[in-house]
Design goal:
alpha/beta, 3-stranded antiparallel beta sheet, 40% helix
Length: 335
């Protein structure tokens, strides 16, 4: 059985000068330090300490071998999105990042699946970037869950998702730039602990309640990271509101629970009991192994929660790899 991790990140080697392409919109670059450590930089400011698995493919592959992961889908770190930049500059930036991700994954083409990023602030440029990246060898696209105040129900983002469906490009949606930061601040990493699940739930519900899923092709392959955030655990609340308030069901002809077959989620919930509920809500065919590798808030023993969960053998095999092979159109190649 091939074990596939759909949620991993890379920060390819990018210099301070190359980061200036974003001209004040974050300007992310990598500072390599000694001893296999480094720093994600935002302009001249330190953003987050990181380790070499984030940018060194040999160290990544060694970590995969130790943990029994055969394949990783590799996506950029959200700091790199560039959504606040001028669209033309962002398009050039995405092309640079996408090329570096291809070069990184070329070190092990059967094991590292490159996912591109796009200038999502401009629909036409984003569609063109996704098409170009797919032709160059990217196996999917990685997007943030919002661009400023525009969430996935935004007409431009819906158009982009429809384009990906037509092109056969899978889409991985990652929360970022979390809401409520002005109230949570940096205390106890609350933006990650509270804001990330809320962002993902908000994104899924906007797609459902706006009726966007009714307009999107069923061929769209869409996955939300971090176990769908708060959505699976508050689905009963959303259904109850849909049944009892016309303002909730105004644009959605079916309750939220009727749309769980329209998207996938990863398994990054860190507790077998939570994963069991996630599988009951979404179905075992809609959950894929995801670890957030190589960040310390990710699952440090990939697949441990899946293996510890009360699942049937077929369900476990599907989550550890079968569903991801279907999502990315992979063949069973490794044993």
């Amino acid at each position: 059985m091939t074990v596939v991790d759909v949620h991993t990140h890379v920060f390819p080697r990018l210099s301070r000068d190359e980061a200036r392409l974003l001209a004040g919109a974050g300007e992310p670059w990598l500072r390599e330090d000694r001893g296999g450590t480094g720093m994600m930089m935002s302009g001249d400011a330190e953003f987050r300490p990181v380790r070499a698995e984030l940018w060194d493919p040999e160290k990544r592959l060694a970590a995969m071998d130790r943990s029994g992961v055969d394949v990783q889908a590799v996506s950029s770190t959200p700091l790199m999105f560039g959504y606040a930049a001028d669209p033309a500059r962002a398009a050039d930036w995405c092309e640079l990042v996408n090329q570096r991700i291809l070069e990184y994954c070329a070190q092990a083409p059967g094991r590292l699946l490159p996912l591109c990023q796009v200038p999502l602030q401009d629909t036409a440029l984003a569609c063109a970037a996704a098409t170009k990246a797919a032709a160059a060898g990217h196996r999917g696209v990685h997007i943030g869950n919002h661009v400023g105040t525009r969430y996935p129900d935004d007409p431009g983002i819906v158009e982009f998702l429809a384009h990906c469906a037509a092109e056969g490009v899978p889409v991985l949606v990652h929360p970022w730039d979390m809401l409520g930061d002005d109230r949570m601040g940096g205390r106890y990493m609350l933006p990650w602990l509270v804001g990330m699940p809320a962002e993902t739930q908000l994104s899924i519900l906007t797609l459902i309640l706006s009726g966007a899923f009714e307009r999107l092709p069923t061929a769209l392959r869409l996955c939300f990271c971090h176990g769908g955030g708060a959505f699976p655990y508050l689905l009963g609340r959303a259904d109850n509101a849909w049944h009892n308030r016309d303002i909730v069901r105004r644009d959605s002809p079916r309750p939220p629970s009727a749309y769980t077959d329209r998207f996938f989620v990863d398994s990054a919930v860190f507790d077998p009991r939570a994963l069991r509920l996630l599988v009951e809500v979404m179905g075992a065919d809609r959950v894929m192994l995801g670890t957030d590798f190589p960040f310390p808030l990710g699952e440090l023993e990939p697949g441990a929660v899946v293996r510890a969960c009360e699942l049937g053998a077929d369900e476990r095999a599907a989550i550890l790899g079968g569903n991801a092979r279907r999502f990315f159109g992979l063949q069973e190649a490794r044993t």
